[in-house]
Design goal:
Strand content: 25-35%
Number of helices: 6
Largest sheet: 7 strands, mixed
Number of strands: 15
Helix content: 25-40%
Oligomer: single chain
Distance between the termini: 87 Å
Order of helices and strands: EHEHEEEEEEEEHEHEEEEHH
Radius of gyration: 24 Å
Length: 298
């Protein structure tokens, strides 16, 4: 399967960003890509007031993405914002193309490094795996990369690759973390990991995550196969799906998992904590009894 990662820099104007998506999708389609992945916040960059520009999945901006996918014959994955309750939005990946129409709402919100995504964004509650040309692909967004369970869930659902769209926050050590986490998640789940970030906007980093670039494609053995630098760029690559089967046969981390052990341990821990609490209550009652006996003696 040939996929394209579109490492671009989006601004605050959804209309201008949609035109960028059209231009970059056409370039990817001309290179033979079947799936074109854009970063998180492709609709509008972080640091922009999100509630006023959020649109439903069948609003004009999403319909514009659908038309681009239809015209190029590709499946396009792009980050947008949809309305949510309480004046918040949902950080959504729209995936649309021939025979494909689905979405993913970011599950793990970026409440870290001095930023609180949950102040303005509502969390998603379900995983998403789609099928393109008979190949299953999982969807994930940015901060999700710190949670290996999601990527293993994709593998359990038959995914051969996860498409990770990000707008990574800049700062000391953040590039090292990005590179390490992307490789680790591919190896955890023994699948291809195609991670596309917003390009480095070249401005002084603030608290809002606006991208650092360094998009990459990592093989199911955890090795980096293709990578970009910080600047805007289009990465087109073929994924060898047979390699997933070969790596899983050789490195059987999925088959060798024993979730029943840690699930049992978690239950036993809860029981132990309950017993400790009951013991503390009993000790308190004993102490109160001793106090009462002392008062009687007096």
């Amino acid at each position: 399967m040939r996929i394209a990662l579109s490492q671009l820099t989006t601004g605050p104007d959804p209309g201008k960003n949609l035109r960028l998506i059209e231009e970059w999708t056409q370039r990817a389609a001309d290179a033979g890509a079947r799936v074109v992945v854009f970063p998180e916040a492709s609709m509008a960059c972080f640091g922009t007031p999100l509630e006023p520009l959020a649109e439903p999945l069948h609003g004009p901006w999403a319909d514009g993405v659908r038309e681009i996918a239809r015209a190029t014959g590709t499946t396009v994955v792009a980050g947008m914002f949809t309305p949510a309750d309480g004046g918040k939005v949902t950080n959504t990946l729209l995936a649309t193309g021939p025979g494909v129409e689905t979405s993913y709402d970011k599950i793990h919100l970026y409440d870290a490094f001095g930023y609180r995504e949950s102040d303005t964004v509502a969390a998603g509650s379900r995983t998403t795996v789609m099928e393109v040309d008979g190949v299953r692909l999982g969807l994930a967004t940015c901060y999700d990369v710190r949670f290996p369970e999601l990527f293993r869930a994709h593998a359990d659902a038959g995914a051969a690759a996860t498409l990770l769209a990000a707008s990574w926050g800049a700062g000391p050590g953040k590039l090292d973390q990005w590179e390490l986490l992307v490789r680790a998640r591919a190896l955890d789940a023994t699948l291809w990991l195609a991670a596309v970030d917003q390009a480095d906007p070249g401005t002084v980093p603030g608290s809002a995550p606006t991208g650092i670039g360094h998009s990459r494609i990592v093989g199911p053995d955890g090795t980096v196969r293709h990578a970009l630098d910080a600047e805007p760029g289009l990465l087109v690559a073929d994924l060898d799906l047979d390699e997933v089967t070969a790596v899983r046969k050789k490195t059987s981390v999925l088959a060798n998992r024993r979730p029943e052990v840690w699930q049992t341990e978690a239950s036993q821990t809860e029981i132990s904590q309950t017993e400790v609490s009951q013991t503390e209550v009993s000790q308190t009652e004993v102490s109160q009894t001793e106090v009462s006996q002392t008062e009687v003696s007096q």
